[in-house]
Amino acid sequence: MRSSLLLLFPVVLRITGVAAFSPLKQRNNNIIRHNVSPSTKLFASENNIQLDRRSFAAKSIASISTVASASAALLSNSQSALADDEGTIIDPSVDPPKITNKVYLDIKFGNYKTKRMVIGLFGDVMPKTTENFLSLCSNGDVSYAGTTFYRVISDMTIQGGAIGSSSGKSSSSAVLQPDNFNIKHTKAGLVSAVRNKDGSIDSRFFIQTKDDAGWADERYAAFGIVLEEEGTGGMDVVKKISKVDVKAPQNNPKDPVMIVGCGVFEGHK
After folding, report:
1. Phi and psi torsions of 94, nearest 5°
2. Among candidates 197, 177, 62, 185, which has minimal Cα distance to 127?
3. How far apart, in whole angstroms, are the C-alpha atoms of residue 244 and residue 158?
4. Which tops the pLDDT comparison, 171 or 207?
């Protein structure tokens, strides 16, 4: 009985389509060759195709991932290089630059007594621009003394510092370019340089009266800020100037807003 079952077993395997092992094994060079049914070969072939497809997909995904990683790294390096070229963007409402010098403007307008406005300068970030402004505040020959705030745009800016003419002049004969535009205009009281059509700057400046002056970002170079020093006018003076009556179309104050004195601030008046 057992011998009969052994003889029938290969036949059953062939009928069911499962790989059958012939009791007569051909041995050639120590390799055993097995008889495989057509259906099993087809199944194996389809499996191989599926495996090949999965392998191809996996390799493609790996390649795409590698390219994406390389692109991200390249973009990051490009952004870092761009940041190095342009400098670090500074938000003075969050992290104000270091104040290296303080200057003052004594201002007289309307029925108000002369008020002192103290301005802190960001010398480390804006060295050339602040040097120009500092010189114009402390130089007896060419200075802001005797000039005016010549334009007032309510709830926006007050503009002053036109030495000699409406176009202003710098502290030297050289054409002066702003150091950079890294300081964002996010804080009321920031002092920025007015630019000429060729991009250069001179003696003219403006003070923003509101925290949000994004229109000035990357167009005008902020270099200082109005300070609330004890015994001085601070932003209260700026706000009062911003409310004076003006004449169209240039928004010039009807009554002069004079800078009657200026200099390096060393203490309370």
Report:
1. -110, -50
2. 177
3. 10
4. 207
